[in-house]
Amino acid sequence: MIGLKLYDYWRSSAAYRVRIGLSLKGVAYESVPINIAPGKDEQKGEAYRAANPQMRVPVLETPKGVLTQSLAILAWLETTYPEPSFLPADPWEAAQARAFALTIATDIHPLNNLAPLGYLRVKFKADEAAIEDWYRHWIRIGFEALEPQLAARQQSPFAFGEEPTLADICLVPQCANARRFKLDMSAFPRLTAIDAHARLHPAFIRAAPDHQKDAVKA
């Protein structure tokens, strides 16, 4: 299939997931940066809002139409490009990998998204120190649930075996957020080790925020 366009932002963890997925599948796509940084707000433009009324990234434009929501995009990629799979072959292990990914994508990440952070600033007059504390708190709570799940398993280079899965696709961007907001990761050695290993994989390297054309260099 040709003609895929990914509307993303280099620092968006949801877009980062999709970039990893596309890279793992070896699927070519055109990157269309959308600057969602506060004050830029390109996602609120009329044309983009027509494509995604949520005014968020990522959006994947396909010959069939547009897809929103990173996990829906990844599910479509999985069925459209079956190899390599994002999930373990064993159904129970696949369900465990999905549950791990959902803990990040539906429990941790939404509380750290731009919309709730902006609401805290405007509605409750939270300063940046309070925002950062909020951000770290919710990552910590989620990681405290995920770490023992992996610690109880037979150790492997990736979260659920010898190859990356949906779990790693979601974990690596969330660990990037944790580092950005200076979360102490010493309580999470398995998560840290898996993240470090995954980031050496060529697909994860290609998808990394700093390697995107719209990346802002510090």
Give short descriptive properties of this protein.
alpha+beta; globular; Glutaredoxin; single chain; Glutathione S-transferase Yfyf (Class Pi), Chain A, domain 2; 7% strand; 2 domains
Report on this structure.
The chain starts with a strand and ends in an 11-residue tail after the last helix. The chain has two domains: 5-84 and 205-211, Glutaredoxin; 91-201, Glutathione S-transferase Yfyf (Class Pi), Chain A, domain 2. A hairpin with a 2-residue loop joins strand 3 (59-62) and strand 4. Helix content is 52%, strand content 7%. The protein is an alpha+beta fold. The protein has helices at residues 13-25, 46-51, 70-80, 91-108, 114-124, 128-151, 166-180, 189-198, 202-207, and strands at residues 5-8, 30-33, 59-62, 65-68. Helix 1 (13-25) packs parallel to helix 3, helix 1 packs antiparallel against helix 7 and helix 4 runs parallel beside helix 7 (166-180). The protein has a four-stranded mixed β-sheet with strand order 2-1-3-4, with helices on one face.
The CATH topology of the largest domain, please? Answer: Glutathione S-transferase Yfyf (Class Pi), Chain A, domain 2
The strand count comes to 4
Helix share bin:
40-55%
Assigned CATH architecture of the largest domain:
Up-down Bundle
Provide the CATH top-level class of the largest domain.
Mainly Alpha
Order of helical and strand elements? EHEHEEHHHHHHH
Biggest sheet descriptor: 4 strands, mixed
**Largest sheet, order of strands side by side?**
2-1-3-4
The number of helical segments is 9
Radius of gyration: 17 Å
